[in-house]
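COMPLEX REQUEST
Ligand: zinc ion
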Amino acid sequence: MAKTNLTGAEEVVWDLSDLYNSSDDPLLEKDLSESTKQAEDFASSYRGRVGALDVPELVKLLQAYESIFELSGKAGTFAFLNWSTNTEDPARGALLQRLHEHSSQLQQKLLFFELEWAHVEDGRAQTLMSDPVLAHYRFWLTLARRYRPHLRSEAEEKILAEKSVTGRSAWVRFFEEVHSGARYTLEGEELPQQSVLTKLYEPDRTQRQRAAEAFTAGLQNMRRVNTYVFNNLLAEKASDDRLRSYPTWISARNLANQIDDATVQALVQAVTGRYAIVARFYNLKKELLGLEELFDYDRYAPLPTANRRYRWQEAKQMVLDAYSSFHPEMGEIAESFFQKNWIDAAVRPGKRGGAYSHGAVPSVHPYIFMNFEGTPRHVMTLAHEMGHGVHQYLSREQGILSADTPLTTAETASVFGEMLVFQKLISAEKDAQIRLSMLVQKIEDTFATVFRQTAMNRFEEAIHEARRAEGELTTDRFNELWMKTQKEMFEGSVTLTDSYGVWWSYIPHFIHSPGYVYAYAFGELLVLALYARYQESAASFPAAYRDMLAAGGSNWPEELVRPLGVDLKDRTFWDKGLGMIEEFVEQAEDMAKVQ
Ligand SMILES: [Zn+2]
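STATUS: Structure written out below.
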């Protein structure tokens, strides 16, 4: 590596000794065999008896349950972290594989408990859960029973589970294999999906247009397969919802997300009601790019920008300043990550890509993994993962069963952290041109999660409902519903070419997790609205926010955010977040005028 490329992150390597000293640490083997032994004892003491336990026995059971997950979680965390920094080392890969197998064996031994608990009759469960001794576990016990009205008998569940391997899961895998194997012909070259889609970010318009045409042609070739797979999975979902008595296509997803149907509806209505923001932004982008008309393949065209670079020390200081000026304790926690070597940021051979914050287990502390190369995006990644890290650190007090949050609120702390750091970053930037492109980038990222995902949710609802009402759908019918729901969003700004009609057919979320996409919009908009509340009440907000993080997943999301003055069912709350996006667009318009 050339000296000029050094960022100072080359020495930033984590210290895993709070977990184990090495992969040969005898303590690791001891924890593994101990967790197996405890799981066996657990099964022999409680299998078939869960419904008959009294409160003290149930407390004992839950403590034993937590202890098993602590032990195996600690070993599993070490194996994963250790592998992440050198995926080419076969010994590390083997340890990770061993831990996967260990964990799935434990799960098989323990599975009976949650099933038996869900089958305990309501009155009896309520009496047990209302006992103050069980207060710490009450919410988890409630959550574990939430599928009860939708579970079928044990014999039926067994058949459903066995048949799903060659049913739903088989179709999902088929779809994934078809798309990962697909090649798109571009200027004589055969390219995989990702390489073609990346070309939509090219500054040269002809290149973008050709990439879009190549992608369309490839999807056209696969249309019969895609249409068939979509139809099958839509029908499968319809019968699953009927067998399990879910009122709508999205109800099962909402239950998993710990959110009710009305809240999701309020979110969707608020976003679709403000599609005018999309038009306003793309009209500005059209001007900035100097184009007469903006087509679908122009959406990701970059603005001319200088290559700003940050050293590790600058990034670290920026993140620490942002977190400590928001809340001193959160600043101190962030400081620990740097001082105590809980971060691995050095780029080195064999290290896997991407970034994450791993919560480890409550008895230890989280670790942050990333590859720092000094771009503005890497600074935001550090800000993002630090948000997860601080959240995970604070919520350790909830214990291993209740520390984690559902999908809907899992990204709150990380995206909020990004907002804090973004504000520092942009105000520290002296070059007006770079400031503008930073802001435009931020707006586009926000659009991708808020508006794009909500429009996709509208499409998804349309196809689920159409499949239920009309029977098998043709490719043209899918195209029509896709164009309708996309045009609603791009009204008055982006011209959609006819060939864009088939672009629904590669999006994997529709296939592997029906109903998933709104969670992105939910998370992003929740953060923007929380940030707006922070600006309104800068004195009292940070303390309430800190407490929300510390509560982890110990209550319904709706209840967790209530002390912050937030009512998730209220459309005007979601409007606050949308108002923030509009403010960003306004700022960008003002900056563009000065240039
Ligand atoms: Zn994240």
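REMARKS: The beta strands are 183-186, 189-192, 294-295, 343-344, 356-358, 367-369, 494-495. Residues 384, 388, 411, 414 surround zinc ion (CB under 6 Å).
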